[in-house]
Amino acid sequence: MSKLELVTSDICPFAQRTRIALIEKGLEYDSLEIEFVGDSFNKPDWFLKLTPTAQMPVLKYAGDVIYESDIVNEYIDEVFPEPALMPKDPAGRAFARNWIAYSNSKFLQGFYGVIMSLETERQEFYKAEFADRLRYMEREGLEKLSEGGPYWLGEQMTLADLSFYPFIERFCVLEHYRGFSMPDDCVRLKAWLEAMRERPSVAATLESDEFHIDVYKNYAVGKQIGNTAKEWQKVIA
Ligand SMILES: N[C@@H](CCC(=O)N[C@@H](CS)C(=O)NCC(=O)O)C(=O)O
């Protein structure tokens, strides 16, 4: 079998989506670790040549170079079908993709809106927005689709769960810097988080609250550099 290589870092929630997927599949892979430090993030040339976005994660396998975390995860699920991380039926897969799209748009806009907004008025706006979006996830997602199972679409953990999880692990950051926490009435989301944390794949990638709080210190004061901060700055403006 060809070697799997993942450009990754412990700080990156997007790469965490993929690390969990690889562990779920029981796949060995080589980590190509990059530390984003310094004024230019010190991105090595080999990395810049690999991906047009200059963002991780990037997966290299059998001559393929795949980027964008949720796309990487679908690629992994297609190339290594067992255990499946997408539902077998087309409607189930469509629902999973609906929620992955929501995760990458409204959900992440809420997350970055709360942490990156600097003026109090904007912070309050995003805190209220994000609380509403979490309630929408509770109501339209878990309540309607999970059918009593612990995961987004029921008994089977899917790529939809993986898309949300790393950011919800980082809610300690929103609490610490902005006093934002999951609304009390999001009881299903809280139970879902517990179920996710019990999975060995998730436990293997879990970092402490202190770790995350330190990683986001520049985001909280508007000093984060790099493409990701620039991208979200435009979205939340
Ligand atoms: N949409 C991308 C986002 C990936 C992303 O933002 N990765 C961050 C690290 S967590 C990155 O590589 N940032 C580089 C930069 O900001 O220049 C994905 O889902 O893979």
Helices and strands, with pairings:
Elements: E1 4-8, H1 13-24, E2 30-33, H2 45-50, E3 58-61, E4 64-67, H3 69-79, H4 90-116, H5 120-145, H6 159-169, H7 171-178, H8 187-197, H9 200-205, H10 209-215, H11 217-220, H12 227-236
Parallel strand pairs: 1-2
Antiparallel strand pairs: 1-3, 3-4
Helix pairs in contact: 1-3, 1-6, 4-5, 4-6, 4-12, 5-8
Bound molecules: glutathione.
Residues 12-14, 41, 54-57, 68-70, 226-228 line the site of glutathione.
The end-to-end distance, rounded to whole angstroms, is 46 Å
Q: Could you name the CATH class of the largest domain? A: Mainly Alpha
Task: Please provide the ordered H/E string of secondary-structure elements.
Answer: EHEHEEHHHHHHHHHH
Number of strands: 4
- Gross morphology is globular
Strand content bin:
5-15%
Number of domains: 2
Q: Count of helices? A: 12
**Level of helix content?**
55-70%
Contiguous low-pLDDT stretches (5 residues minimum) are: none
Q: Give average pLDDT, whole number.
A: 96
Rg estimate, integer Å: 17 Å
What molecules are bound to this protein?
A: glutathione
Return the CATH topology of the largest domain. Glutathione S-transferase Yfyf (Class Pi), Chain A, domain 2
Largest beta sheet: what is the strand line-up? 2-1-3-4
Short characterization:
This protein is of the alpha+beta class. It is built from twelve helices and four strands. The protein is globular.
Notable characteristics:
Glutathione S-transferase Yfyf (Class Pi), Chain A, domain 2; globular; Glutaredoxin; 2 domains; four-stranded mixed sheet; single chain
